[in-house]
Automatic annotation (TrEMBL):
Keyword Signal in annotation: yes
Organism: Nocardioides daeguensis
Keywords: Signal
Protein name in the entry: Fibronectin type-III domain-containing protein
Residues spanning the signal sequence: 1-28
Length: 633
């Protein structure tokens, strides 16, 4: 889960500039220039940031008790909104589904009790809702949690106290286009420090501490769309709970939880994988030596691979440790993050598309973001100058980009984007499985949200002739194609699979999925006796093979294909043919009608070798016209 930023030291914000004086690591050109988020001046007590799309983000802050929000589009901040005027707001929480939907929440006093209120973003500078998510007569205790599903469903979780209520854990759902539902109780009492994460499907996990009879235990509750929330499952932790948890859920429905426990008189980090049915596996100690582990954080990618981070204090020295876990597995041995600040605190673990992994933490007035874009690459730190408050925030988007935010007293909030995602590139043509031309049209679109584009788009292709068993190696067939379209000269009887590749000015590249098409083999390639070979305008390749005699045959040997089709031309007095593959009848076709048609005759499931034969079975005088063969891979 993206770690929420809590409880900033109050700072009077004034107009100013900031020279970060950053070190220059490898790939430093991917870091964009730090930008001041132009919040109004005032005492800022909370700030947070979430990604809402490729290069887009929302930042929110509490300033002089009011809730403010700014939107970034392609890395540029604009669209300021006062979401809620001064209500002495506290405990800011911000969430997004990464697909353009965002929600912000805060705690305000309503009727003498502290309640969670949430607003939903309606546009770049517009927020709507202002809905109360906790019931009257109860106070929010601790930090509330917020998540947004792919369909815009907002989920809020909070622990509340009140008369005859002791740390009750509630969850409230607010569907898009409707009002919030009634709060649901996940724990009647003794539940605290909830952590929430939601995936695009609306599956969600809440992990929370529960006060047990002997030891405090970690409990996980799962939401399944259409079935609601289960009552929770204990992680069977190895010791008394010693910290708030963090939780993350993948697109595959499985999750991970990390927390600290007291084990043999030491505070150690422990994790629990969560199965897709909500079962929390037995806790597993990550840190085994004598240390003090605190402030755990976890994030998980779409495939279930998790990144854990936590602070370790040992012999009076602090460091950040991290570990990784495969899908549904316990993590391997932890490692110490090189370049940890001396007073390391508040780590944020982040995973993104394309292999991006990041861990951000603060200490001694600085903020350092460690990142890598592949598993074989070591983490590279990039460190700010002095003067930052300890609390920072960061998030990743679906394109694999990173946004961070921090606060400098008297200067303001500063955000920075890391461009680790390639351009948005889509190959739209070839669009048909068969291309009836020797010039194949290629069309694509390409943009980049955070960087410019390097000139030209490379077009790759693999080819396989009608008598070849498989495609050859991919090769560049159009180098640095300008614009967004091109034409490729094709060879008759050949299958092609095209891919486009574009690179941005930060060096990030995107390669599209393959789009395949086959150019038919001309009818002249089929052998047969006493057929008429004619030139015919409008026919494929302007040729056709014609007969009106029963028993005439056309044969094509040495075919290697997965799919076979015939190009035929129908006539008012059209005849009939039988199609054979390796001597077996596979299709009967009537040519009565009008116009040229492509008739599928065989789907082999895999590439197979054989001989194709077409035999005329209609009586003499009925016209049969064969125009070509599609032998596709």
């Amino acid at each position: 889960m993206r770690t929420q930023l809590l409880g900033l030291t109050t700072a009077a914000l004034a107009v100013g500039t900031l020279a970060l004086g950053l070190a220059t690591p490898a790939q430093a050109d991917a870091w964009k220039t730090p930008t001041k988020v132009p919040f109004p001046n005032g005492a800022m007590t909370d700030i947070d940031v979430v990604s809402t799309g490729d290069g887009d983000a929302v930042a929110a802050a509490i300033i002089d008790g009011a809730v403010h929000a700014y939107t970034a589009t392609d890395g540029v901040w604009s669209g300021h909104a006062v979401v809620r005027s001064d209500v002495d707001a506290t405990k800011l929480v911000l969430a997004s589904n990464g697909r353009g939907a965002a929600a912000v929440g805060w705690v305000e006093n309503v009727g003498g009790v502290d309640r969670l209120r949430v607003s939903r973003q309606a546009g770049p500078a517009s927020w709507t809702g202002l809905n109360l998510m906790t019931p009257s007569g109860t106070d929010v205790v601790g930090q509330p949690q917020l998540g947004v599903a792919g369909d815009g469903l907002v989920i809020a979780a909070a622990t509340v106290d009140g008369q005859d209520i002791d740390n009750k854990l509630l969850v409230t759902e607010w569907p898009l286009g409707a009002g919030p539902g009634a709060p649901k109780t996940l724990s009647e009492s003794d539940a605290w420090n909830p952590a929430l994460d939601v995936n695009s499907k609306g599956e969600a996990l809440i992990a929370y501490n529960y006060t047990g009879l002997i030891n405090d235990v970690m409990t996980v509750s799962r939401r399944t769309p259409g079935q609601g929330w289960n009552l929770g499952d204990s992680t069977s932790n190895s010791g008394n709970i010693a910290s708030a948890p963090d939780v993350a859920i993948s697109e595959n429905g499985k999750g991970q939880v990390i927390y600290s426990v007291v084990s043999n008189a030491y505070y150690r980090a422990e994790t629990s994988p969560v199965l897709a049915d909500g079962t929390a596996l037995t806790g597993h100690l990550v840190s085994l030596d004598e240390d003090f582990a605190s402030e755990p954080s976890v994030d998980i990618d779409d495939d279930g691979r998790a990144l854990f981070a936590y602070v370790v204090t040992k012999d009076g020295t602090k460091s950040i440790r991290y570990a990784t876990a495969a899908d549904g597995a316990y993590p391997g041995d932890p490692a110490t993050l090189t370049g940890t600040l001396p007073d390391a605190q508040r780590p944020i673990a982040l995973t993104g598309a394309g292999g991006l992994r990041a861990i951000q933490h603060s200490g001694n007035g600085r903020v350092v973001t460690h990142y890598r874009t592949s598993q074989v690459q070591p983490f590279v730190p990039i460190t700010s100058e002095q003067g930052y408050l300890p609390d920072t925030a960061a998030d990743v988007d679906a394109g694999g980009n990173l946004v961070t935010i921090g606060l400098k007293p008297l200067e303001g909030a500063f955000a920075r984007f890391f461009d680790a995602g390639g351009p948005s590139l889509a190959l739209s043509q070839p669009g048909a499985a068969t291309t009836m031309s020797t010039s194949i049209p290629l069309t694509w679109s390409v943009t980049d949200s955070l960087s410019g584009l390097q000139p030209g788009t490379d077009i790759y292709a693999t080819t396989a002739a009608w008598n070849q068993a498989q495609h050859g190696a991919a090769a560049v067939v159009i180098d640095n194609a300008p614009g967004t379209s091109a034409a490729f000269p094709a060879v008759l009887g050949t299958s092609y699979c095209f891919q486009a590749r574009a690179t941005d000015t930060s060096g990030n590249a995107t390669t599209t999925e393959k789009r395949c098409t086959t150019v038919p083999l001309d009818d002249t390639a089929l052998s047969g006796k006493k057929w008429n070979r004619i030139a015919q305008a409008g026919a494929f390749n302007n040729t056709a093979t014609v007969t009106k005699k029963k028993g005439r045959k056309l044969i094509l040997s040495g075919v290697q294909a997965r799919h076979l089709s015939l190009l035929l031309t129908k006539a008012k007095k059209g005849g009939k043919v039988k199609v054979f593959w390796n001597g077996h009848l596979v299709k009967k076709v009537s040519l009565k009608g009008t116009g040229q048609v492509t008739v599928p005759v065989l789907d082999l499931g895999s590439v197979q070798a054989g001989t194709l034969k077409v035999k005329v079975v209609s009586k003499n005088g009925r016209k049969v016209t064969v125009d070509g063969v599609v032998a596709a891979k």
